[in-house]
Request: fold
Amino acid sequence: MPSLNTLLLVLQAATSPAQAPQLAAFKQEAVRDVASRAQFTQQMVDQIFSYAELGFQETETSRYLVDLLRKNGFTVREGIAGIPTAWVATWGSGKPVISLGSDLDDIPQASQKPGVACHAPLIEGAPGHGEGHNSGQAVNITAALAVKKIMEREHLPGTLQIWPGVAEELVGTKAYFVREGVFKDVDIVLFSHVDDNLATSWGDISGNGLVSVLFSFQGKSAHAAGAPWRGRSALDAVELMDIGWNFRREHLRLQQRSHYVIPNGGDQPNVVPPTASVWYYLRELDYPHIQEMFALADTMAHAAAMMTSTTVLPPRILGSAWPGHFNRVIAEAMYENIKQVGLPQWTEADQRLAHALQRDIGAPDSGLATRLDTLRPALKPNERTGGGSDDIGDVSWNVPTVTLRFPSNIPGLPGHNWANAISMATPIAHKGATAGAKVMAMTILDLLMRPELVTQAWDYFRNVQTKDIKYQPLIRPQDRPAIELNRDVMARFRPQMRRYYYDPSKYRTYLEQLGITYPTERAADGSCTGGATP
Ligand SMILES: [Zn+2]
Reply:
């Protein structure tokens, strides 16, 4: 930040205590306003649930959100970083620039009727919101509109920016947003993500960063029975690479996670596969270890090519994520707001759905969270055991960032699964999103009214977080977003899915549109039909 700005911030900070009663009043007003928008929030959650789009193919979802934001006075730029479903919406002017992000995309084969506590796909094999990414934009947009109303009336300076985590399940875009300069003038990023509690944290995440890489092999086709000696199988190379990796895995650090799928294993058995490819997620705790794994996988690929007399093409990076590190100052301020908002009031029906599902899938029968999570302090290096990734990590190493987790889901579920979709268009998700929006609105107001917070957040960012570790993107200059991913799958299912798009002009909720009794449990005969559908 320029020094003039810093000076201004110091001057404003000096007047801050006098603003304390006003800030408290604005927060109360914002909380009431968010509560009054509960139906608006519910409609967004249900609408995006019904679109159920996979990463890079969030066309209906993005069109809907872009329209909604424009109607509410935001200026929207589309096609960010060459990604058709990416956009950045802004409103307001001047500093601070508060940036709100949340993911959009869903999970393959996770189609599920909401409110039904057993496996009942809406459409067999179709994608579904089995992670709950249909709820975060509702949190951010509801909060932004409540704060915008106060900013307009009070002539508060500041800019609100809203953006989607496109293709988060592919960790496919946020590093490109960084490269594109989306966060260049941003002071603070507030990210929101679905969870089963209302929480935030600071310091290193317990999970991993990763690089997502496609290894493709080129062989020679031949009649697999008539002249197999004439052929060189690219699939053999894929299999040998995987075998090599699985042996080597024993001698990798315990913190690593690595997994693969074979998107191209050949065409049909009587043709020696001339091309084949394997897609790896290589996860580790930090940039040097991720790069080490990538180099090792590359060695395996070359060795497999040598064994099979095939060639390996240059590896293609399909996605990447730095391991996240969240800002202490903002997390602590946010947690004060979390304590004030508290968990939603769950009804007996909400708890019944949660218990029924937990029993059905063999998870601990805890019901929904009724006690707030504590503010988790920074993990010590030996407490970081590895796990999932989110490319918000890239953002967090460029701008002070925190993630608000809000209680729209049920504890104890496997993740990336139909079970995680069940609560996501029910009162559980709706109330969780409203609770999240309240915290988000209060935290934005903190940042607008207490400029010293922004200064202190940057102080932590510069002098603690990035003192020894500097961001270097995992994407290389030649890499481009893998925007073609999921195109075929969405094209296959979209015609069937259209029949299930939510129509809020006709139905108060999506459950009502689907004719589902809330909650629906497995029938006495053990079947799971999951109630009516249109
Ligand atoms: Zn997610």
About this structure: The first strand starts at residue 75 and ends at 78. Residues 427-449 form the longest helix (23 residues). The radius of gyration is 24 Å.
